[in-house]
């Protein structure tokens, strides 16, 4: 119970900190939304000032910050300066697509990552093991916009499914890498010898004991990948022409649409806090020794 | 085998400028996107610049960017991760908070802010990209340390009167090193690739200096009719990252000592 | 305690992921009845789609089909022809335009088109609440209207404004249904648009797609709207393709039947291919160009600027970057723009020796032999603001190299986006900046070259030029305007205020199954009514 409360408190504070950081970081970037629109349209500077006034962009920074926080506390994420759409509406409509993409990619990446990592990690000196390991090295090294572009150009799968595949593959790489390394380092362990002596088949040893024992090492990697899949996929979205949160964020930053970007960071921060909570739980589940407090 | 590749890469990176046949910045509009020939071993790019020369010059910048960013990411990440596990509760919670906040902010937004604030220079890109790598590394550090600390051998060592310093140096770090090295290699890879990702998004740094990642991102647009541009920069980049990863793995295997 | 038992668990995971993927995919596709349908590729996702509010030309590709305008420009002759207005007269003093409206026109929602509708639109456009980014500015010196009778309306100006008819022919001033305008309000209207055009607006999902469906009751199009005998396009889906590298692939794979802004080198590969055609449209307006800042040294010196022009191999750059699809620009207007004058085309032929000679007459010397002229602050260095769009990044790198040979160091300042570009411009610490805009009527030149122009990035101020620009914007007589604009363009090139780069050309990739697709006088906007699709 206490753990849950601490987690909740930590979550709230981290969300607040993230939104604050975003709020002030954004203002470091030169220009604001009205000036950007105005310059493109050739609007008179008096009209620009009027508009900025109406939006409250002229008020002292701390005051704007306070108003924004107050709004969030009441569940009002604000309205896009550029399109006047409700920020929550924007996040929701793009978020659904992103969520679907992220979930499929995540499942794929875990499946492929574990499979590939195991194949690469169990046979230390055999040729197939080495091939798998080189494969992982390559997968880590190839930039996602290259594999994505090649996939679209080849016409194999060009829509959301392709995006999920590419994302899944690339997210699988660090997972496989970590798992294979952990497996390689555990190969001399005592319990393996014992199991072998007991007459268990090789595969059972591998799955039930070896992989199971090192599975916890990929938990932090997976949690990072999850965060990335939810918010950092703008490149893939662009290449596969899929609408998603990544692009709406890029647009928001380019247009200085503060409410949209801040709303986005708020959403991400909540996701990250939740992900971390789940990660902790996964850690305990996979490694009972961690249930006591660390050190 | 990876070691051999790495040596070749290192050679190219360090010595490249000296053996480059042409000035990498010389443009030849009449020779735009020419395929490899006897005059231009790897062909020319859209502006008619010799691709081979640009690749030879570019290695140094790429290595600098990647290692600079990785340095920042690994250094601060190690610090942040350690604080999350070994420290008084206030410090532990604060470090975790910082990590979560860093993960909530989009990487390229941070990079963009630095570029906007410091001007579009490679220094700004290094710091910006480096910032994005801190949190992922610190998470791995924190969880790995936490896991290892629960091992019996740690408790045993503590019971035997080992000091914190001794614990960390001789027990925890050696056991954590395989995972940490894997993560460090991933950080280096990300650092190298992130820069070309920025160029892809149009947020890249200085426009003209050759750099493998930027060349790859720009070469991508010409990949159908002039694949040698992307290939010439992409291949060394991929080989570099892949061999660093492989070497890191070898290193961690040999360095692993205790059999918990 | 639960454990990851064995391979069964893994295969269950894989199965689950496949299911999620499949579900994800199928829920995307619309189940549609068999209609004659094409997908049209747009190239960027604008911040909004309201013609009266937003200013991106991209939205016109869609909205030109949804709205009619009072007048139209014939794409062949460039003359004004009747649209929703059957005829019009202009008063002696050129400040009252009287329009006689076409009768028996209805909006897509059944509302009748009358003078009241026109009034409602005008009110909306100029209303402060609308915050129009372009449409209101297009109305120029607009000063109000008077409704004479249900089919006659007077539009009044405070001063003569030559481009009024041109503005009224642009989709930005398309006529929307007053009922819809009133029902949905300023913000929601863009998702529920109602016009009188040949296509009805069905839906708009931001960043994802728009759908239009043919208006079977459409009989009041301008003279150059001619429906094909068979294969009229019943439905159009517009999708966004921001990544230039994958546009061709999407077209070739049938993901879209029309794709805009295909990169030149990709377009070249389509040339022999009978399954596709390239429709090239020249975009009137300003060419891609670089403006020189006349407010700071050394670009405040006319001779210096002229030396820069002489030291630039414009033809070489453009030919190699655009594969012959684009023509090098010769001045402040592209060759397809009204009142274009090619008189300055050969004013600055590429000649580095001459450029160097000119620079040395200004007193520069290279004392340390490094090939770059020296100044009191070290090497002679110019700063250029480089945005990431277009081919400006590559052009700037070309220039860096070319000007190095005439002894000038060019420092490139990359700006990541429009806002940063604007704020850098405001700081004034640049010598060169890349920019461009579009339009058929060259009246927009005023905002760039008049002393008080809102986009006078070169900071040039000359009362003679101001007078010419003002006059040209007021005169209605085309002969007089042509003469004025010729003098204006000559002055701009004589002063070397800009380095013109290329005439903007849009390369549209079109499937050969689409027949008869034409573009209107503004270059960007397709006339889908005339096209047919035989799958």
At the fold tier of CATH, the topology name of the domain at 97-254 in chain A is MetI-like fold
Using the CA coordinates, give the radius of gyration of chain A.
24 Å
Structural class of chain C: alpha+beta
**Poorly predicted parts of chain C:** 1-8, 25-29
Helix and strand element order of chain A: HHHHHHHHHHHHHH
Q: How many beta-strand segments of chain C?
A: 24
- The percent of residues in helical segments of chain A reads over 70%
Gap between N and C termini of chain C: 60 Å
**How many beta-strand segments of chain A?**
0
> Looking at the chains present, what oligomeric state does this protein adopt?
heterotrimer
CATH superfamily of the domain at 97-254 in chain A: MetI-like
Strand content of chain A: under 5%
State the helicity of chain C in percent bands: 25-40%
Rounded radius of gyration of chain C (Å): 26 Å
Task: Estimate the strand proportion of chain C.
Answer: 15-25%
Write a brief caption for the model.
Chain A is mainly alpha-helical.
Give an account of the 3D structure.
The complex is a heterotrimer of chains A (295), B (260) and C (535). Chain A has 14 helices and no strands. Helix content of chain A is 78%, strand content 0%. Chain A is globular. Chain A is an all-alpha fold. Chain B has 260 residues and is an all-alpha fold. Chain B starts with a helix and ends in a 5-residue tail after the last helix. Helix content of chain C is 30%, strand content 21%. Chain C has helices at 7-26, 58-66, 115-126, 135-138, 164-168, 178-188, 247-252, 264-270, 302-310, 314-322, 352-361, 392-404, 418-427, 445-449, 463-474, 478-494; strands at residues 37-42, 71-73, 80-82, 85-90, 96-101, 142-149, 152-157, 199-205, 209-214, 235-240, 258-259, 276-282, 288-292, 374-375, 378-379, 381-386, 409-414, 432-435, 498-502, 505-511, 514-515, 518-519, 526-527, 532-533. A 7-stranded mixed β-sheet of chain C has the order 8-9-10-1-11-20-12, sandwiched between helices. Chain C has a 5-stranded mixed β-sheet with strand order 17-16-18-13-19, sandwiched between helices. A 4-stranded antiparallel β-sheet of chain C has the order 4-5-7-6, with helices on one face. The radius of gyration of chain C is 26 Å and the shape is globular. Chains in contact: A-B, A-C, B-C. At the A-B interface, helix 1, helix 6, helix 7, helix 8 and helix 11 of A face helix 3, helix 4, helix 5, helix 7 and helix 8 of B.
């Amino acid at each position: 119970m206490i753990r849950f409360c601490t987690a909740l408190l930590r979550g709230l504070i981290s969300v607040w900190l993230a939104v604050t950081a975003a709020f002030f970081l954004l203002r470091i970037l030169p220009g604001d939304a009205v000036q950007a629109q105005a310059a493109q349209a050739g609007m008179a500077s008096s009209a620009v000032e009027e508009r900025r006034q109406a939006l409250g962009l002229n008020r002292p920074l701390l005051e704007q910050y306070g108003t924004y926080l107050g709004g969030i506390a009441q569940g009002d994420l604000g309205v896009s300066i550029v399109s006047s759409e409700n920020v929550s509406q924007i996040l929701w409509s793009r978020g659904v697509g992103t969520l679907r993409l992220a979930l499929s990619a995540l499942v794929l990446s875990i499946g492929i990552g574990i499979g590939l990592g195991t194949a690469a990690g169990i046979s230390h000196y055999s040729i197939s093991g080495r091939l798998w390991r080189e494969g992982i090295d390559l997968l880590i090294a190839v930039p996602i916009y290259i594999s994505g572009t090649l996939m679209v150009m080849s016409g194999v799968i060009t829509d959301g499914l392709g995006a999920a595949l590419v994302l899944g593959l690339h997210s699988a790489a660090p997972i496989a890498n970590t798992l294979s390394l952990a497996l390689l380092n555990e190969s001399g362990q005592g319990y393996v010898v014992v199991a072998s002596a007991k007459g268990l088949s090789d595969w059972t040893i591998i799955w039930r004991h070896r992989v199971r024992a090192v599975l916890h090492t990929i938990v932090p990697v997976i949690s990072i990948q999850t965060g990335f899949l939810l918010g950092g996929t703008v490149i893939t979205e662009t290449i596969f022409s899929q609408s998603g949160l990544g692009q709406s964020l890029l647009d928001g930053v380019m247009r200085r649409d503060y409410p949209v970007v801040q709303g986005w960071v708020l959403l991400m921060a909540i996701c990250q806090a939740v992900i971390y909570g789940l990660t902790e739980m996964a850690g305990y589940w996979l490694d009972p020794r961690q249930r006591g407090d660390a050190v | 085998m990876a070691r051999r590749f790495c040596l070749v890469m290192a050679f190219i990176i360090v010595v490249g400028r000296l053996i480059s046949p042409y000035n990498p910045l010389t443009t030849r509009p009449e020779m735009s996107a020419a395929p490899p020939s006897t005059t231009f071993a790897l062909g020319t790019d859209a502006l008619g610049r010799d691709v081979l020369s640009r690749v030879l010059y570019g290695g140094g910048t790429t290595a600098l960017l990647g290692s600079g960013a990785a340095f920042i990411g690994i250094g601060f990440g190690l610090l942040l991760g350690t604080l999350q596990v070994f420290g008084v509760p206030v410090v532990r919670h604060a470090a975790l908070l910082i990590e979560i906040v860093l993960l909530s902010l989009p990487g390229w937004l941070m990079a963009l802010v630095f570029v906007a604030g410091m001007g579009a220079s490679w220094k700004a890109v290094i710091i910006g990209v480096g910032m994005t790598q801190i949190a992922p590394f610190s998470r791995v550090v924190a969880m790995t340390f936490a896991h290892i600390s629960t091992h019996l051998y740690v408790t045993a060592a503590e019971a035997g009167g080992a000091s914190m310093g001794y614990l960390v140096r001789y027990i925890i770090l050696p056991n954590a090193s395989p995972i940490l090295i894997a993560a460090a290699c991933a950080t280096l890879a990300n650092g190298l690739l992130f820069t070309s990702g920025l160029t892809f998004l149009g947020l890249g740094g200085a426009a003209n200096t050759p750099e493998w990642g930027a060349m790859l991102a720009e070469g991508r647009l010409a990949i159908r009719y002039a694949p040698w541009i992307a290939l010439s920069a992409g291949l060394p980049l991929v080989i570099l990252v892949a061999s660093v990863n492989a070497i890191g793995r070898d290193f961690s295997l040999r360095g692993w000592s205790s059999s918990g | 305690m639960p454990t990851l038992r064995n391979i069964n668990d893994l295969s269950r995971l894989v199965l689950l992921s496949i299911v999620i993927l499949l579900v994800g995919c199928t829920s995307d596709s619309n189940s549609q009845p068999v209609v004659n349908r094409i997908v049209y590729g747009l190239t960027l996702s604008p911040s909004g789609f309201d013609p009266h509010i937003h200013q991106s030309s991209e939205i016109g590709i869609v909205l030109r089909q949804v709205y009619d305008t009072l007048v139209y420009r014939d794409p062949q002759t460039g003359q004004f022809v009747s649209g929703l207005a059957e005829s019009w007269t202009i008063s002696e003093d050129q400040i009252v335009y009287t329009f006689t409206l076409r009768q028996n026109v209805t909006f897509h929602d059944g509302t009748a088109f009358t003078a009241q509708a026109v009034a409602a639109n005008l009110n909306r456009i100029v209303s402060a609440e609308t915050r129009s980014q372009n449409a209101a500015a297009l109305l120029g010196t607009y000063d109000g209207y008077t409704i004479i009778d249900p089919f006659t309306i007077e539009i009044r100006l405070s001063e003569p404004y030559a481009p009024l008819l041109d503005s009224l022919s642009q989709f930005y001033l398309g006529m929307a249904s007053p009922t819809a305008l009133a029902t949905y309000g300023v913000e929601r209207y863009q998702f529920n648009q109602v016009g009188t055009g040949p296509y009805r607006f069905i839906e708009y999902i931001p960043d994802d797609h728009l759908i239009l469906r043919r208006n079977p009751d459409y009989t009041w199009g301008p003279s150059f709207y001619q429906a094909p005998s068979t294969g009229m396009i019943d439905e159009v889906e517009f999708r966004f393709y921001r990544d230039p590298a994958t546009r061709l692939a999407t077209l070739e794979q049938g993901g879209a039947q029309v794709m805009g802004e295909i990169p030149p080198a990709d377009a070249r590969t389509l040339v022999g291919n009978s399954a596709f055609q390239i429709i090239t449209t020249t975009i009137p307006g300003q060419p891609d160009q670089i403006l020189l800042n006349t407010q700071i040294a050394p670009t405040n010196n006319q001779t210096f600027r002229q030396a820069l022009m002489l030291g630039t191999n414009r033809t070489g750059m453009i030919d190699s970057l655009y594969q012959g699809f684009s023509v090098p620009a010769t001045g402040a207007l592209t060759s397809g723009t009204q009142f274009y004058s090619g008189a300055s085309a050969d004013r600055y032929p590429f000649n580095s020796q001459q450029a160097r000679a000119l620079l040395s007459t200004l007193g520069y010397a290279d004392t340390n032999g490094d090939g770059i002229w020296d100044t009191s602050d070290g090497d002679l260095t110019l700063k250029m603001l480089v945005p990431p769009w277009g081919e400006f990044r590559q052009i700037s790198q070309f220039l860096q190299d070319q000007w190095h040979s005439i002894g000038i160091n060019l420092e490139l300042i990359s700006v990541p986006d429009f806002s940063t570009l604007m704020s850098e411009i405001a700081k004034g610490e640049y010598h060169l900046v890349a920019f461009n805009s579009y339009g058929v009527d060259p009246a927009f030149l005023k905002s760039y070259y008049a002393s008080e122009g809102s986009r006078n990035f070169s900071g040039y101020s000359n009362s003679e030029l101001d007078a010419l620009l003002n006059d040209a914007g007021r005169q209605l007589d085309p002969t007089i305007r042509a003469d004025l604009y010729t003098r204006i363009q000559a002055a701009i090139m004589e002063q070397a205020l800009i380095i013109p780069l290329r005439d903007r050309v849009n390369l549209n990739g079109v499937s050969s199954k689409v027949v008869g697709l034409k573009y209107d006088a503004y270059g960007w906007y397709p006339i889908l009514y005339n096209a047919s699709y035989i799958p």
